[in-house]
Specification:
The chain is α+β, with helices and mostly antiparallel strands. Helices cover about 35% and strands about 30% of the residues. The protein has helices spanning about 5-10, 65-75, 85-95, 155-160, 185-195, 205-215, 220-235, 290-300, 305-310, 315-320, 330-340, 345-350, 355-365, 365-370; strands at about 25-40, 45-60, 100-115, 120-135, 140-155, 165-180, 195-200, 235-245, 255-265, 265-270.
Length: about 375
């Protein structure tokens, strides 16, 4: 006789029911530092340390989420993290925690090699980047965030001064749902083209002259910069938010602007008037575990509550829903009774054709097909 694992004997308070009737929008872990690999436009891998927030929605009747399971799933990520790999990672978290909605926010430094404008000496510039990914049911949403430092020179100061004009470093933050694939470099270059001048980590004297004169020839208010960035990126965006902060050199405060833009009916509309963006990938057929999780959610049961009804632990049920373990066939009857289904239908969902169903197929194939499609 196999011994029962100690974990299954210990109380699982997070799976208990809660009677306060208050759902939680997002709960999980915040600030997890983790090594990841991101790819740049030159097809080179950048090994960076990211800071990850991972959260799920929590139904009103469930006491808590299982914090350790976030790290268990993320532990499998030691390589590429991108628009192509995030849907699978979100799906794993969604199944493992039995949650209807899951969100990942991954922030990391990103480096680009830049050549000084005149001397052409090379240096690395650091930019801030983040992936914001969300899975609600089977709908995936992805927002790319990029922070770009630039130089701005004040048009008013230039107009009223006989000599020079005040200028400063500015931060431009872009959040974008793109029409097509966008590299981080695409955002950086678009923003820099709209500023008075780009920034460089390394400049020689001839380069400083170029930067100073370029900024003087291209004065920008904060309003100018945010509008130019939006106009430059709008052809590639379904939705975006842009924020610009000028760290004023002649004031003890900043100048700041922010806008949101969304595409609807082929025209720019205010956010909220253009409808929700379509999912970025088609829904996939539900696995047996995902089907159990969906039906459990419809009954508003926690994993512990359904597990008690079918005679398994919440820990085992979470692995079944995540596709990591198989539910023993002897539990199919209890599962069918709990969910109000026939045992034959549950078996078929699990990929097991019961003898009774096989006999029915042989006796009346058309009738079985009508029954299966009902």
């Amino acid at each position: 006789m196999n011994a029962i694992p100690l974990r299954d004997l210990l109380p699982d308070h997070a799976s208990h029911a809660d009677d306060r009737g208050i759902p939680i929008d997002r709960v999980g872990i915040k600030g997890l530092r983790w090594p990841i690999v991101v790819w740049d436009r030159a097809n080179k891998a950048q090994h960076v340390v990211a800071e990850i927030d991972a959260t799920v929605s929590l139904p009103a009747d469930v006491k808590g989420t299982h914090m350790s399971r976030f790290v268990e799933v993320i532990s499998g990520v030691r390589g590429e993290l991108s628009l192509h790999t995030l849907p699978d990672l979100l799906g794993q978290i969604q199944r493992r925690l039995g949650a209807p909605a899951v969100q990942l926010d991954v922030r990391f430094p990103y480096f680009m090699e830049r050549l000084a404008p005149v001397s052409k000496v090379a240096s690395l510039m650091e930019y801030g980047a983040a992936f914001h990914a969300k899975l609600v049911g089977d709908e995936f949403d992805f927002v790319l965030e990029v922070r770009v430092p630039v130089t701005t020179l004040c048009p008013c100061s230039k107009a009223v001064s006989e000599r020079g004009a005040h200028n400063q470093r500015s931060w431009v933050d872009v959040w974008i749902r793109s029409q097509d694939f966008l590299w981080i470099e695409d955002i950086v270059e678009a923003v820099e083209s709209c500023a008075s001048s780009p920034l460089f980590a390394l400049l020689k004297r001839e380069d400083e002259k170029w930067v100073t004169e370029r900024a003087y020839d291209n004065p920008r208010f904060v309003e100018d910069l945010i509008r130019e960035v939006t106009r430059t990126l709008e052809s590639r965006a379904r939705w975006m938010k842009v924020s610009v902060e000028n760290l004023e050199s002649i004031h003890n405060h900043s100048a700041w602007a922010e806008l949101e833009w969304s595409r609807g009916g082929g025209e720019a509309v205010l956010l909220g008037q253009g409808g929700n963006p379509p999912p970025l990938r088609p829904p996939e057929p539900a696995s047996f575990g995902a089907w159990i999780a969906e039906r459990r959610a419809a009954y508003r049961w926690s994993q512990a509550q359904l597990g008690e009804r079918i005679g398994v632990s919440a820990s085992l049920l979470s692995k079944v829903e995540a596709g990591e373990r198989h539910l023993a066939q002897e539990r199919f009857g209890a599962l069918a009774e709990a969910l109000g289904e026939s045992e034959a239908r549950v078996s078929l969902r699990a990929g097991v054709v019961p003898a009774a169903a096989l006999a029915r197929i042989q006796a009346d194939p058309e009738g079985f097909l009508r029954w299966a499609g009902s």
